[in-house]
Amino acid sequence: MSHREVVRLSAPDGTVAGQLVQVGGMLFSSSISGRDPRTGAIDREPAGQAETAFSNLRTLLGRAGARSDELGLVTVCLADARHARLVEGPWNTLFADERNRPVRRINLYPLPDGELIQLQVIGVGGRKRRPVEFPGVSDGPSQAVGVRMGDVAFSAPIDGRDPSSGRRSDDRKSQMRQAFRNMEAFVREAGGSKEDLIHVLIFIRGRDDQKDMLDVWLEEFPVDGERPARKAIFDETLEGESRIIELLCVAVLGRGRRLDLEVPGIRKRHPNPMGCKVGNLVFSSGIGGDDPSGRAASNSADVRAMFCLENTRTLMEAAGGSLADVGLIAITVNDYADEVAILRQWRRFFPDPADEPARHVMAYGGRGSYSVQFHVVAALGDE
Predict the structure, then answer these.
(1) Beta carbons of 378 and 316 less than 8 angstroms apart
(2) Is residue 157's pLDDT more than 50?
(3) How confident is the model at residue 125 (pLDDT cuts 50, 70, 90)?
(4) Which residues pair with 231 in a beta bridge?
(5) Fewer CB under 10 Å: which end of the chain, C or N?
(6) Do residue 177 and residue 236 come from a single domain?
(7) Do residue 52 and residue 80 come from a single domain?
(8) How far from the centroid of its chain's Cα atoms is residue 145's Cα?
(9) H-helix or E-strand containing 348?
C-alpha cells in the first residue's frame, strides 16, 4: 500500500508545471518549471520564467498543506549562467528570513523545450530549519554551511578551502581531502558524525580529477559495505577555477547504523554501494540500466529504463520497502528525446499518475557514458 500523497500543477492542455510528493514524512518535488499553469505557455523572457517557477513552487506547497520553512534543499537548474542573478528576487521573497533559508545549489546544463529554469526541492514535513554555522567553509546564498531539520541535515556546497585561511591548495588531493574534512566538520556541527552520512553528491572539475577523487574517497571510507551512497558529476562550471571539487551531502542523525544496499548481479563500477539506508530513509547511488542476469543489455532508452526500474524495485526490496515508498527519482539522460521511451516504461511500474514518485529529468553529468541512469530517494512508512 502506498504512503504517497501527490499534488500536481497542470494546465488545461495537460502540461505539468510541477508536482510535489509527500511520503514517509518527507517532501519531494519533480522538475518545477516556469510554465504558466493556467495556459501551459512559457515566457520567453528569463525573468518571467524565474518568477513563475517560484510562484509554482509556492502554489504546490500551499496545495499540499506544506510550508516554505519545511524545505531543506533547493536545486536551481539553469540553462544559462547569466540568469543566476534573476533568481535572487523570487528567492528572497519566498525565503524572506535571510538568517534561515534552505541550502541552495545552482546547476547549469541544457534544459528541454525552451525552458530556462527549473526548481527541484527536498524537505522534511513538520520540521523547521535550523541553520548549521561553520565560518569559512561555505560562501553560498547564506552564511550557513547547511541546515538541520529534525534528524536530517542538508549541506550547502562544500569545497576544499582551508576554513582558517580561506585558501585552496594547488595540490589536487590535498584540496579534495580538505573538502571531505570540511564535510565531516559540517556533520559534527549538525550534531552527528561521518557515520551518519547517507548520501554524498560530488561535483568534480573534470575526468582527469576522477582518479584522485576515488583515491581520496577510499581514504575517507575504506571499508566496503560501510560507505554512504554517492554520485559524482563532472561540472563544467568548475573548469578553469581553483575549485576542483564541491560536496553536497545529506546525513541522518541518531537513527542507527548505516546499512549499505546492493542489487544482486550488478557489478559495481566504482567503490560505493548501490544504495544506503539510515532509519527510514533510502538514498541510492547511480542505478544503471544493467541486466542483473549478466547478459549484455541494449543501450536503447526503452531497455535501459526498464532495467533501471527493475533494479530500483530490487533495491527497495533489499531496504525492506517497495516502489510505493519511493518519493523522488532523478533521471540523467544524454538526450531529452529519450523521455518518451522512459515514460513508457515508467507507466508500467507507476501506472497511476496520482500515485507516483516525483520525477526530475536532466541532461547533466552523464553525457557520453550512459543513456539513462536513476538516482532514487525513498522514505519507508512514517517513522
Answers:
(1) yes
(2) yes
(3) very high
(4) 201
(5) N
(6) yes
(7) yes
(8) 17
(9) helix 339-349
